Amino acid sequence: MKRTAKLSDIVIVEEKLSSVQGHIEQILGLSTITVTLLEEVPPELQAPGKFKVLYYLRQAYTTLAYLLRGVVVALIFVVIVGWIVWLPLLIRYLVKRRRSSTPPPAA
């Protein structure tokens, strides 16, 4: 059995199939997302030219501020966690040392 179809019928069927495929991919989470990330370059660095001393000093100052902030956060973490971990161990050591230095009772 041979069947002929009009071009408009084929286009309609193709559109319907594409729509159904899109719905299936959306339900199954198979959709493809394309993301393009571009880094914005500051105008000072776009074209070669004069050496911008103030720009680099500002960058160095900002980096130093971030570094110092990280050091302070790390010290706070070490102090808090240190007390939680080391204080019980120190107490146990001192109690054990006191018990061993106490002479046994005389009989």
Features:
107 residues, single chain, mainly alpha
Describe the structure.
- This protein has a domain at 48-100.
- The protein has helices at residues 7-28, 43-46, 53-101.
- The model has no long low-confidence stretch (mean pLDDT 81).
- Helix content is 70%, strand content 0%.
- It is an all-alpha fold and 107 residues long.
N-end to C-end Cα span: 116 Å
Mean pLDDT: 81
Number of strands: 0
* Overall shape: elongated
Low-confidence stretches: none
- Secondary-structure-based class equals mainly alpha
Q: What is the element string, with H for helices and E for strands?
A: HHH
Q: Please report which band the strand proportion falls in: under 5%, 5-15%, 15-25%, 25-35%, 35-45% or over 45%.
A: under 5%
Question: Over the alpha carbons, how many angstroms does the gyration radius reach?
Answer: 36 Å
Number of helices: 3
Write the layout of secondary structure elements.
Blueprint: H1 7-28, H2 43-46, H3 53-101
Summarize the model shown.
Helices cover 70% and strands 0% of the residues. With 107 residues, it is mainly alpha-helical. The chain has a domain at 48-100.
